[in-house]
User: What shape does this take?
Amino acid sequence: MSRGENEEALISSKPHIMLISFPLQGHLNPMVQFSKRLISRGIKVTLVTTTSLDISSHADSSSITIEHFQVDRPSTEGRSSSDAIDEYLSLLETSITRNLPGVIEKQKANGCPVKFLIYDALMPYALDVCDKAGIQGVAFVTHSSAVFAIYYHVYQRALDIDLLDELSSVTLPSLPVLGFKDLPSYLSNVGSYPGLLTLCMSQFRGLEKAYGLMFNTFEKLEGEVVNWLSSKWKIMTIGPSVPSMFLDKRLADDRDYGLSLFKPDGDACIKWLDGKDSDSVVYVSFGSLANLEQDYMDEIAWGLLDSKCSFIWVVRDTEKSKLSEKFVEESADRGLIVNWSPQLEVLAHKAVGSFMTHCGWNSTLEALSLGVPMMVVPQWTDQTTNAKYIVDVWQTGVRVKAHDKEKITREDVTKSVKDVMEGTKREELKANALKFKEMALEAMSEGGSSDKNIDDFIAEIVTSSTST
Ligand code: UDP
Assistant: This one.
């Protein structure tokens, strides 16, 4: 056998897992990262994507085989974003249901049959594909287990959202008492995105047929709710699913997720941070989707400037027109505005003292993993619940203002920056943040809770591969 043939034979003898991600940055990142963990344990991985993306040749992401079929987003022109989202979700379902079986079949024909399909939990129809293809399906949940549990109570009608109002508080098993606005926004603002609420509810459809559920979280972070969920399904906590060099360092050179839907201004950020004092910079990001209102953006801008702290602010190109020229001019010597940052590198930099975040679940886990205190400005979806946990349960951050899209003022922004950057409040938050950093590291290190769950899962795959 030639060397090439040898390698091919070796790959086709490996157990093969296919993953399919929801086409958003916050869903792709943890799945790609998890794929690298599988590859490092000798598993062949194929990632199915429906949006064009750039998998860099960085670290192990290059060993992921990509299968792609494009599903284009419909235009939003002349209709609400909610209608456009509904149409997109329907196109996605139709396309995956039609194309995924062929992708699975092709692997079999090539001598690399797929054993398990790990599908984004928001694509329950992938389970039907598994059924027909005779393979096992595993749901991969990219929000917190607390948020998943809340949706489950609504799905089961144990929590009736029609009976709630602004003054309600909600008591559910294994969760803290939640105020109305601590619930995910699709529940507290029911009419806002009905299609997305239906999507979140759909993840429970047929879930009893799944082999199990994977959560990008870790036991010491969400132990109680994970235990509660474990009484219903096989739950595997496998996180924080962030590049290895920021936690256990067992995957050599694994410093970024290795794929991006945006182009990062990497060098500019790090060079700029290198010239700053320790713990002196506020990092501000609202993630890949948020679309801030003009007033909101203005108050953040002037509040940051009034705080007198240095800052990096991620303002995506599509949002840049909302920054006033006056602000850009006046902040030039203290602020760096970028389209997209290498977020983990930035959070890990010694100059960064705090993170003003929209509380996307990945950003939340990344800040906890790197021990960075937060200022929370949740916008919508699960961010409101994540913010509640950051401030009241884990106590690693402060609120800029009471809740989601309520009006904030520049004074609120300045005050929260000062609270998190100086004085005794900072000391408390930092001490708590460092505790979680330690626990996150422990979970992903050899023998840690998440590491062990990944090992156990692989042991089962290997057993099932040899027994078929
Ligand atoms: N991110 C990044 N650079 C940025 C902003 C965000 O790399 O400038 C990454 C961030 O590290 C995280 C993801 O994009 O992994 C955003 O996911 P999250 O769940 O926090 O928010 P979403 O974008 O889904 O609202």
